[in-house]
Specification:
Layout lengths: L17 H7 L5 E2 L2 H9 L4 E6 L8 H15 L3 E6 L20 H16 L11 E4 L1 H4 L4 H8 L5 H4 L3 H7 L7 H4 L1 H16 L1 E7 L3 H15 L4 E5 L12 E2 L2 E2 L9 H9 L3 H11 L4 H13 L5 H15 L1 H14 L10 H9 L3 E4 L4 E2 H7 L6 H9 L3 E3 L2 E2 L6 E2 L9 E6 L3 E7 L2
Parallel strand pairs: 2-3, 2-5, 3-4, 5-6, 9-15
Antiparallel strand pairs: 1-6, 7-8, 10-13, 11-12, 11-14, 14-15
Length: 435
């Protein structure tokens, strides 16, 4: 994975305080005492953390909100801790509907390393306030069951624990909740207590859907140490139509380029609705409010240019995948829209483009374009395909075809196995040649 260029990142100096900017960007849905928290953030440097559980081999867009919040706090001079949950990942926080399938210790250990590498790319480990990475398995593995129950468990009240939103939902469900997942909030509270004792950590961030777990930590530190610590819950990002952000038919948008290609990642942001783009710029980029206001104006006055979406897609793709991958994604996007050359794309980028399009796989050899238009879904029938070809409405690799008897040969294949068929201006499909 590429290395994120942190030197270009800055908080917006037009705000009177960090707290004001965080709220303007829509990053605070819920928090502990807001006035006290603002005073804490505006005072001397503090240590804060966010935890990431290895329940998959990669982080996704929901985690990116937390990574950027960690970075914004670091830019303000505070000391970040990135926690990867080697122990909590063995359990997993309770899901909305059913018990998680527990992963093996070996799998979780492997995912811990992968997530650690991802988190590290978004934080600076140099300067006056370098980031620190920790693994909660380092302290939980040393606890005996008796010590855990005597020293930690005694601070939790079952009545309070079952009132947590996710626990209450699961208790009222048909499946219920196991003691394992019920205990997750105790383990997360233990993380905060340990980081408070070891590093004087006084703030935890996380998604607002984790608020019950976040407050388990603040409550535990108060009971065990008599200290006041804080938590910030960021809003769950949703689209203007109310749908969940970052999901398409149940598929997450991953930060790992092997799971979501830089091209697909770029296209995801480029397709942001006009009604959502300003909010996305606030949360996911370091653009100033003056820059975002100008992009919002362009969206309202010249929506056809999609300038805000282009800036959003370029900024975030560069942040996550680097400038070279972004350049390739932009070139591929131009070719898809008929304004660039598919021949200039490298094989991996072309494969990523093909994966996002309707496609048909064919055997090596010569193929009638009429058949391919039907096979890829670009034409409903052979007669419709012939009519398209007769009218000059089809192209291969952005090169117009003529005649109803047009064929696709080996000479038309890019990198020996891809061809991009187009009907009209907007309908595009891929043909891939199998071995």
């Amino acid at each position: 994975m590429s290395t994120t260029d942190l030197s270009t990142q800055h908080n917006d100096p037009s705000f009177s305080s960090l707290w004001e900017e965080l709220n303007w960007r829509g990053l605070v849905q819920v928090s502990t005492d807001a006035e006290a928290l603002q005073e804490t953030l505006d005072g001397g440097p503090i240590t804060y953390y966010c935890g990431f559980d290895p329940t998959a081999s990669s982080l996704h867009l929901g985690h990116l909100v937390q990574l950027l919040l960690l970075r914004r706090l670091q830019l303000a001079g505070h000391h970040p801790i990135g926690l990867v949950g080697g122990s909590t990942g063995l359990i997993g926080d309770p899901r909305q509907t059913s018990e998680r399938v527990l992963n093996s210790r070996e799998t979780v250990a492997e995912w811990v390393n992968l997530l650690r590498e991802q988190v590290q790319r978004f934080l600076s480990f140099e300067g006056d306030n370098p980031a620190r990475m920790v693994n909660n398995l380092d302290w939980t593995s040393q606890l005996s069951a008796i010590d855990f129950l005597r020293d930690i468990g005694k601070n939790f009240r079952v009545g309070t624990m079952i009132k947590k939103d996710i626990v209450a939902k699961r208790l009222n469900s048909e499946e219920g909740i196991s003691y394992t997942e019920f205990s997750y909030q105790i383990l997360q509270g233990l993380d905060f207590l340990n980081l408070y004792r070891q590093y004087d950590c006084v703030l935890q961030t996380g998604g607002s859907d984790q608020w019950g777990n976040l407050t388990s930590g603040t409550d535990l530190v108060r009971k065990a140490e008599g200290a006041t610590v804080h938590a910030i819950g960021t809003p769950l990002i949703t689209n203007s139509d109310g749908t969940k952000f970052g999901k398409s038919e149940g598929n997450a948008i991953w930060l790992d380029p092997e799971l979501t290609s830089p091209y697909a990642f770029y296209q995801f942001w480029l397709n942001t609705a006009d009604a959502d783009v300003a909010d996305r710029l606030k949360v996911f980029t370091f653009r100033t409010r003056e820059e975002i206001a100008e992009l919002q104006r362009l969206t309202e006055e010249e929506p056809f240019r999609r300038e805000a979406q282009k800036v959003l897609a370029s900024d975030i793709n560069t942040l996550v995948h680097g400038p070279e991958a972004t350049r390739k994604a932009i070139e591929a996007s131009a070719a898809v829209f008929g304004k660039g050359s598919f021949e200039d794309l490298d094989e991996d980028t072309l494969a990523a483009v093909a994966a996002e399009l309707p496609h048909a796989e064919v055997a090596p050899g010569e193929h009638a374009v009429v058949d391919l238009l039907v096979a890829t879904g670009l034409a409903e029938s052979k007669s419709a395909a012939r009519r398209t070809l007769k009218e000059g409405g089809a192209s291969v690799n952005n090169r117009k075809l003529s005649g109803e008897d047009a064929t696709l040969t080996a000479d038309d294949l890019l990198h020996g196995r891809f061809a991009l068929l187009r009907r009209g201006k907007k309908n595009l499909a891929a043909v891939t040649v199998g071995s």
